[in-house]
Amino acid sequence: MTEDILVRLRQLLPDLRPSEQRIARSTLADPAGVASLRITEMAARNSTSTATVARFCRSVGFDGYKSFCLALARAGADERGRRLEFGVSEGDIDPTDTMAEVVRKLAFQEARAVEETAAMLDLEQLDRVVDAIIAAPVIDVFGSASSGLAAQDLQQKLRRIGYQANASSDAHLALTSAAVLPAHAVAIAFSHSGETEEAIAALQTAALHGAFTVAVTNFPGSPLAQAADAVLTTVSRETRFRYGAMSSRMAQLMIVDTIFMGVAQRNPDSVSASLAATLDAVASRRVTARNHGDD
What pLDDT score was predicted for residue 244? Predict the structure, then answer.
């Protein structure tokens, strides 16, 4: 395994057995401490057996407890280095933190969300999505609440370069739009948890009518991911005050920009012309442009 084991544990957590979830949470809470434990100590800490610990290691992709601990030690060292760079002792915000500490911790979380999303992104899946969008007669983008902001951002970016893209925050309108998608259309759903009913229903409806479906989610084993032809995985962390919701959007917007740039790279001349045309269309609505015209 080449990816950060801490990232992988967060993503796999919902799909693990209850006893394995206890081990995962204990590991995420104290990765450096867990890396130094013997397997018997790990089992005792989590009120379980050594057999369950060994099964947990296999469930998260390792051939044994030793290789799990080695990967954990490497990930813990990287995490400590990144925290030192941002001047934070740990990532969660505490009620006693100063505003300066809050700002540093937020910056740490946002930077990590973008970096880890980029590192974990499946480039083959991304190429499939870009190819499908370029060939699509229409692209429907779905997302609720904060995920709806990422959906709207992708829609407006694709519209600005001439693609017929639609996004709706209304669940019924999303379903009705998905139900009439033409052949070779693309449907993209954003959901951090991958468990949002509206996003899943819209994607399933689009799939029934022959659309190429894409899930953008933090959890590759989630119901939304299972309903999709292609999955683009974000990496972000939820914490005590749920400011992870902002890092979730940052990770989703990282995916939005990679999709947009992938599409733009394939047709640079056409994209440049479209961007220039849309910029000209709104230029007269800028206050500075009107003021300069009056001089």
Answer: 46
